Amino acid sequence: MAFRDPVLIRRSRRRRRLVVLIVLAVIVAVLALAFRYQSERRQTIEFLNEARSIVEEHQEMSLLLADLFDTLGESEREEILTRLASLSEQAAAIDVRVDELLVTDPVAEANGQLVVAHRSWKSAVDSAGPVIVQVLDAVDDERNADRRLQATFVQLLVGDQAYADLLTTLREVDADFAPFPEFAYVGAERTTLYDAALVGDQLRALTRLVETHDVAITVALDPEPAGESDGVQLVPNNGTFSVLVVVSNNSNVQEAGIEVVLQMRPEEGEPITVSELVPSLDPGESVSVDFRELEIVVGVTYEVLVAATVAEDSDPGNNSTRLVCAINSDS
Fold first, then answer.
1. Burial (CB count <10 Å: 0-12, 13-18, 19+), residue 107
2. 181 shares a domain with 261
3. Which tens digit of pLDDT belongs to each residue from 127-144?
4. Angle between helical axes of 77-99 and 6-70 (0-180°, round to 10)
5. Percent over 90 (pLDDT), the chain
6. 161 and 286 in one domain?
């Protein structure tokens, strides 16, 4: 009976263990690669879904921006600037989402193109408001103003080209994802809409969009005068006296820091002066400013002067009022 050499037996066992370890290592490596592939594929799809959502939001913004320029002749100055500010806020929110995208190797190029498209579109939206104000207020000569408009519109075109490149790149991406919308901020149908010279001429022709300032007031006495004698309004003696002021903003821009001043000058003695500050007032809005419980002497005639002023008021005749009154001592 033959016996195997113990040394050979141990070597054989070590070789079998080594083979088993190698096989296990290969299996683990294959599983790791498969997991990595699946994880990368999942992250790629997540990127594409979020990127498509970002693009769809830009598509909506492109419609809003086009409508704004298409209706310049029908809009008020403050409305135009408010709408542009809203678009800028929307673009800023998208900016955060773009920065937070998780990028995988298969979509690295697409991400770069998306970043260029978004940043270019955002730059155009952010600059549109200040440039329009410069044109309306004739801050610069027409040629330079039109150049600023052109630079803004060029940014839209740069974004459009980057997005067109993105759509081409996505055709090579091996992943199941919903198609991205085909759109452009400018496009062939909006060429004249974003023509700097045409837009500049249109803005300059809309004189009502030029910044105007006009604050108006109306004044009432409380109690209401019961009558009048020789130009003096006779106010019943009810124990209190108030001057009620309504301040209206007839400007096409927001007015801030409107000081409303009431001065009551008696026939003799020191005048009474009080004031209230209206922090801000939007175009077309009105606010009540009441000067109540004023200390005046019964039977004394007072000249009542009320004024609310802003810088460069286009109609100073409607922001001040003068009347003469007296508390009727017979009431």
1. buried
2. no
3. 999 998 888 777 667 788
4. 180
5. 50
6. no
